[in-house]
Amino acid sequence: MGCGPVSDRDDFSQKVKEALARRVGFACSNPSCRQLTVGPEEGGEGAFSVGEAAHITGAAPGGPRYDPDLTHEQRSCIDNGIWLCAKCATLVDKDREHYPAGRLREWREWAERGARLALEGVEAPGVVDRQNDMELIRFYAQCFDREAFQQPFMGERSVTDFDRAIEDTITAINTGCLRSRDGHVLAEAKGKVYLTNPDWRDKMDTVVDILRAIRSRYAEAIKSKEVYVASPQPDGQQADWIQPELGAWMDATRAQALRLFGELCEAVNVPAPVFPRPHWPF
Ligand SMILES: [Zn+2]
Fold first, then answer.
1. Ligand 1 centre from 83 Cα, in Å?
2. How far is the CA of 257 from the centre of ligand 1 (A)?
3. Distances (CA, A) of 87 to 83, 91, 111, 133, 137
4. Cβ-contact 166, 148 below 8 angstroms
5. 33 near 50, Cβ under 8 Å?
6. How far lies 191's CA from each of 10, 178, 195, in Å?
7. How far, in Å, is the centroid of ligand 1 from the Cα of 101?
8. Dmax of the chain from CA atoms?
9. Residue 36 and which of 30, 141, 208, 213 are 20 to 30 A apart at CA?
10. E strands present in 125-249
């Protein structure tokens, strides 16, 4: 596909823009939008478009999600593009925190898959498939079934393990693949982008945003020494030091994520994870 530099802004060629639009059937790739972006020109013979070939990582320094490690060719290549309606293109560039590059790649993958299925007549896009969503939510509930979501933060023996567990949970919800620490696949389903009910998908996005916030807060706490990681003891146990205010924040934030997720569980009749687990001896 015609990848190549155009100016100091690494814009897409016309050919790349067209390919991006065609690969998703000219519909916006935001799963919560799916707005058609082309239509007939009123009173004329032509067609008009309200779609945009948006950059996943910015076209120029300072742009949204700009990645300085990419070459000019990579930045203007089709792999770095996503087809969006004008409204969603503005939205993802304004609210950069909420729409990182990874989320846009998920959208593109989902939209391309949807376009292919629609072409094959397998599945009408935009139809809510309750059975599908139920199975996915049941899988996500399994992802929360781990110590990091059961006990108060002050009771963590190793905060490093805690942070990894949160990271693994985010990955499992995004990719639909739950792995143990050594990479062994424990369970497989599909990532949250495959939820067909848009309200539930939005809710799962928010749950993951909260989990990301927990990881950022943890990274900050390490820097500001609100948490101190002890070296492993001879018996293999670690006992890290944690500032109580940080513990309270972590617990409240985790409870918030699980409360939100619990609403989805309730909607599909799956037992919701509760935090902290009732039999925790605190
Ligand atoms: Zn849109």
1. 9
2. 26
3. 12, 6, 17, 27, 29
4. yes
5. no
6. 31, 10, 8
7. 16
8. 81
9. 208
10. 177-179, 185-188, 227-228, 241-242
Give 202 Cα–ligand 1 centroid separation in angstroms: 14
Residue 85, CB half-sphere, CA atoms under 13 Å: how many? 14
- Would you list the domain boundaries of the chain? 14-120, 130-268
Tell whether pTM > 0.85: no
Q: pLDDT for 198-207, tens place per residue? A: 889 999 999 9
Question: How far is the centre of ligand 1, averaged over its atoms, from the C-alpha of 52 (Å)?
Answer: 10
What pLDDT, on a 0 to 100 scale, did the predictor assign at position 95?
87
Residues 151-166: b if buried by 16+ CB within 10 A, e if exposed: bbbeebebbeebbebb
Residue 142: both structure tokens together: 């399994």
Per-residue pLDDT at 245? 94
The structure tokens listed for 187 are: 């369970």
Please give the average per-residue pLDDT across 115-126, as a whole number: 72
Residues facing residue 199 across a β-bridge? none
Six token digits for residue 87: 């409204």
